[in-house]
DNA sequence: CGGCTAATTGACGGGACTCAAAACAAGTGG
DNA sequence: CCACTTGTTTTGAGTCCCGTCAATTAGCCG
C-alpha cells in the first residue's frame, strides 16, 4: 500500500473500542466496512416484533460488511472487549481501488463471507434443531478449535441466546439439544463458554452434511 | 477492458446453453464464477437425505459465485432456457486483476449477493410461513416487477417447489399461504407463473420487516 | 378432448415454541 | 471463605405451526 493511500484511509477511518455487550456499530443509511482488530463480534439483523437474527460471528482479523438499513436494520455487537475500525464503504472502495491486490483481498473476503452465509441458509432452511447445533459446533471447531488429547477444545464467547439467534432456535431448544449431545457422549461442557468436543466425526454425522449421507 | 485481457478471458471461459430443468453447472473442487447471459437460474445447495436449499435465484445479467463442494454440494439449474458463461474463479481473478474497475464491479456484485443472502438468513431463521412468502413476493417485485394499473405484475419462472426450497417450506405450505394471501385480497394468480400483486403495502406489512412494526 | 404434471385442499401428527419453574454458575459484600 | 444475589442455563408441561401423507382440482401440451 502506498503511503498516500494509507494516510487517506486513516483519515476516513473511525476507531472504536467496545466492551462486551456494546453495539459500537449501528447500521445507518450507508453501507459500512468494519475491520475487527481484536475480540469477537456478532452481526445482528433486526426484524419486526423485536426478533433478531445473528447473521454472522466474526473474530479478530476479519473484515465485515455492515449493510445499510433497508427492509431490515443491522448492527454489530461486541461479544468480547474488542477494537474495531470502520469506514464508509464507498470511500473505502474509492481509496483502495488503485491499490492492486488489496481490492482482490477484499473481494476474496467477501466471497468467503458469502459462502458462510450460504451455509447458514442451508442450516436455517432445511435442518433440524440437532443438526443445526452439530453444524454450528463443527464449523466453530474448524474456525477456532484447539486440538487436545481427548478431542477438540472450544471457547465460545457467545451466549446460548446468541447461538439461538444465529441458528433460528430458542434458548430452550439450544439447551435441550446440547443436553442430548452430552447424553450421547459427543461433548462435555466444563464451563459455560468452554466446550470439549469428544467426537468430531460423530458430530459431523449428526450435522446433516452431504458427505454423511452419501 | 484491454484486448489482451478479453482474449485471455475468452480462452478461460466455458459457454453453456441450457434448457429449463438442466443443471449446466455442477459444483466441483474449485470455486466457479458464472455469468448469466440470458434466462434465469437457481443456485441449489444439497444437504443429506436429498434435502435441497435454493440459495439464490439469479437472472439475466447477474454474476454468480458457485462454491466448491465442502460440507455441502452446490449446483446451478436453469429455470428457463438460458445461456451461461463460466470461469474457474482463480483464473478469472488473475485475469481481471489488472483491469482497474472491473474487479471493483465484481466486488460490488458480491456484496449485493451477500446482502441478499443475509436477508434470506433472516427470513429462514426468524419468520413465519406467511411472512416468508410475503417477503419473497415483495423482493421479487422490487427485482423484476412491472407496474400496471391495478398493482404490480410478476412473472416468476420458478415452480412452487423451488419457492419452497428457497423459503425453507414445503410445497403445501407455500400453496396454503398463497391461498390465504389471495383470500385477503392482496394478490391474484391469473396463471401458474403469473402473479398480480394488488396491495404491495399490505404485503410489506405482512413481511415482518423492521419498518412495519416500528 | 384426454392425459399428465403441478398445484391446491384436507386430516393428522410431530418438532419446536411458549410459559413456567428449578438448578446452576459467577460475581459481591460481609 | 462463605452466604447471598443475580442472571444464565437447564428441565418440564402444554400448545401451535408446519410437515407428512393422501385425495382432489386445475393448468398445460399434445
From TrEMBL, chains A, B:
GO cellular component: cytosol
GO molecular function term, any single one: DNA binding
InterPro entries associated with the record: cNMP-bd_dom, Env_Response_Regulators, HTH_CRP, Tscrpt_reg_HTH_Crp-type_CS
PROSITE patterns, A to Z: HTH_CRP_1, HTH_CRP_2
One Pfam family from the record: HTH_Crp_2
Domain HTH crp-type: 127-201
The organism's place on the tree of life at top rank: Bacteria
UniProt protein name: Crp/Fnr family transcriptional regulator
Organism: Erythrobacter crassostreae
Amino acid at each position: 500500500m502506498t503511503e498516500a493511500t494509507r494516510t487517506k484511509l486513516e483519515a476516513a477511518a473511525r476507531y472504536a473500542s467496545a466492551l462486551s455487550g456494546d453495539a459500537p456499530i449501528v447500521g445507518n443509511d450507508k453501507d459500512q466496512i468494519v475491520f475487527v482488530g481484536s475480540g469477537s463480534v456478532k452481526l445482528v439483523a433486526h426484524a419486526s416484533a423485536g426478533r433478531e437474527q445473528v447473521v454472522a460471528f466474526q473474530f479478530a482479523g476479519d473484515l465485515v460488511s455492515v449493510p445499510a438499513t433497508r427492509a431490515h436494520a443491522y448492527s454489530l455487537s461486541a461479544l468480547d472487549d474488542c477494537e474495531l475500525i470502520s469506514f464508509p464503504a464507498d470511500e473505502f472502495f474509492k481509496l483502495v481501488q488503485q491499490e492492486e491486490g488489496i481490492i482482490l483481498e477484499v473481494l476474496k473476503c467477501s466471497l468467503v463471507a458469502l459462502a458462510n452465509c450460504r451455509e447458514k441458509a442451508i442450516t436455517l432452511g432445511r435442518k433440524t434443531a440437532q443438526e443445526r447445533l452439530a453444524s454450528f459446533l463443527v464449523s466453530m471447531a474448524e474456525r477456532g478449535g484447539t486440538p487436545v488429547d481427548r478431542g477438540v477444545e472450544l471457547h465460545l464467547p457467545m451466549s446460548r441466546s446468541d447461538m439461538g439467534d444465529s441458528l433460528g432456535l430458542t434458548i430452550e431448544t439450544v439447551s435441550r439439544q446440547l443436553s442430548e449431545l452430552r447424553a450421547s457422549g459427543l461433548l462435555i461442557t466444563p464451563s459455560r463458554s468452554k466446550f470439549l468436543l469428544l467426537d468430531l466425526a460423530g458430530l459431523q454425522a449428526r450435522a446433516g452434511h452431504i458427505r454423511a449421507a452419501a
